Here is the input.
Amino acid sequence: MRMQFHKMHGLGNDFVVIDAREQAIAIEPALARALADRRTGIGCDQLILIDKGASTDVKMRIWNNDGSEVEACGNATRCVPVLLGRDCTIETAAGVLTATLAEGGSTVDMGVPRFDWDAIPLAYPMDTLLMPVGWGELDHPAAINVGNPHLVFFVPDVDAVALDTLGPEIEHDPLFPARINVNIATIFDPSHLRMRTWERGAGLTRACGTGACATFAAGRRLGRLAHKVRLDLPGGSLHLEEGADGHLLMSGPAIDVFTGDIDLAPYA
Here is the structure.
């Protein structure tokens, strides 16, 4: 069986996108890992499956490059209207999202962040704004769910943190029964900050859209950020805004790099 795909990215967070509306395909964790492998597959941070939505324009499913299926991916969500060529509603495991085309990318309404300990989820109750926990040089994070679970640490210099070492340790800590994404950020002023992310199931990536939203939400909750910000990541910049209704709006680039097809027989 040959499968068609799109290679897309948002700020260097890259995806293999399969449009299953015309060509149905079953994705298992082993197949997701194989296609995501950068030496023997196509290569990506996440594998994205687009299908027909029950009451939305499309449905989106997401697998990390370790084969784990996850609820949300902000950068991939921005790619969907670019792929379709129009504004759209998107069914995800985290709820229905609305995405609007913009020049060079799109804007996505990511909904309202959740801060309750059992919405993250944490293994037991605790304050999620300044958590009384730490790992190495990182301590007192905020925890937020923006469709998937995130920790946010505000630090003086994001480049000085050994995130490649601390990230996997925190991700797999028993405090987080669903594992967790780890973000570190430096605030320059109330409307400008910089961030790096260790993504659950994908490792260090050049950008994380849900991580950007979580970091913005944490900064707003702490009173350190304005309602509109520019957030810089290793792959480029996102613009974030908190609406009067508490919804988080994320705007940024999304690129359809190339299309191709692949023989799935070697991966069966």
